[in-house]
What does this fold into?
Amino acid sequence: MNLTAQTREKIAKTFIWAAAVLVLAVLTAIIADILIKGLPVINFSFLTEIPRSMGRAGGVASPIVGTVLITLLAVTIAVPFGIGTALYLAEYTKDGIITRLIRFSAESLAGIPSIVYGLFGFIFFVIYLGLGWSILSGGLTLAFMILPTIIRTAEEAIRSVPLSFREASYSLGATKTQTIFKVVFPSAIRGITNGIILSVGRCIAETAAVMLTAGSALQLPSSILDPTRTMAVHFYILAVEGISAENAYGTAALLIILIFLINVVANMLVNRFVAKGR
Amino acid sequence: MDRNPKISIRDFNFFFDKKQVIFDLNLDISKNEIFAVFGPAGSGITTLLRALNRLVEMTSDAKAQGEILLDGKSIYSENMNVTDLRRKVGMVFDVPTPLPISIFENIVYGPRLSGIRNKSELNDIAEKALREAALWDDVKDRLNIAAMSLSGGQQQRLCIARVLALKPEVVLLDRPCSGLDPISTAKIEESLIQLKKQFTIIIAPHNIQQAARISDRAAFMLLGHLIEEGTNEDIFVKANKDSRTNDYITGRFG
It folds into this structure.
């Protein structure tokens, strides 16, 4: 082929634009479809009533509570361990067999289908530890599921903090721990937060693993040892068993709004509190 | 010869893994002088400066042999507290290294670590350090903006101010003006000449002219060996004892 550089440039640009437009169009279509069909269903009673007659009538109050509690529990458990592991890998050890083993395990775990985590959670937490179908079993299972993501993203964020920051801190008389907490960690917080938001999204969207470990109870839980049903599970059951397409769309729309809100709020918090002066 | 040198380097050798980068170095640096260590790249000058505050230990496989004495005390002895040492021997790097926090927070980073909490005391420290580094007039109304938003020259003066806020005894400057314009360079050199009344300054100049302009004494290093040392006049005005020094200064190699 004997194309001029300018022609090649045009062809490349066209392809790149087409790819971007196509992806955006598909995403927009899905979200628009869900919002158009789902938003009319959402009203005050939909948000505050628990489901009646298997979800055919009533609202989604208990699935909202279940989703929030399980996600909170999973994130609260996984974040400290995940960031701790990432700090260990990035700051406190040299590369060796142990770090490679931890990294390899984390990578393998990240690629395992969530239903496998669900099965593990069912056998270990629900049956062996006798926690039953409960918010606790579900939260613990999801914590295991998101741990690899948090470790990987946090480690990468910590490693990308420039060496010059560390050198400057040490040269001003800081110890290693002071350097990590005053300089490295605040500089990495944006990347770490991105990993956490990603994980929160995965928790909220997870269906198989929570169904196996937290059950699908419709009533409001009174403790974390009670079974519950998350919005994703509720949506799945409503749709698959043909109970109510209308309420399924309402639940889906609510899920999308929730994830969107979490993204916005988390970014605002990071900008407001941590990223000052950066 | 100074009988009470501020820093005394004795039979000092330095290795990265098996590669030796400094060979049998002996050097005395007096109090309140500007001492320039110059030479082509790869002469071990950066390593020498970083050995003086033990920052070189951040690199793995770094090994020091011999002694460096600060006021007669070995800085490599086991009872030397490294963080104390780094407060006494402050360092400015070849590129500005502001931390990603505000101007004010950069200055008080060191003092805070040494336990100063009082807000007005910190304010005083910051103002004094910024004045000494000739940056106060540029930034006095915007101490809370990000340090990264300053220009390169201002950032480097901020880094100098940050070191001064530690109230150090020795200040190490590793090619502090290498990325700066002549006006910023002149401002920094003026500050240094003012500051030697308070501190001992060891500088790796970014060129020979700078060494000639500001140093009281100077040493020429080549491939890890000390070739020649002497007063400013000995090195830059009179005939050099070693022809290699003369060749380097006159630009025959380098």
In short: The interface with chain B takes residues 94, 164-175, 178, 182-183, 186-187, 276-278 of chain A (CB under 8 Å). The mean pLDDT of chain A is 90. The CA atoms of residues 114 and 209 of chain A lie 6 Å apart. The longest strand of chain A covers residues 51-52.
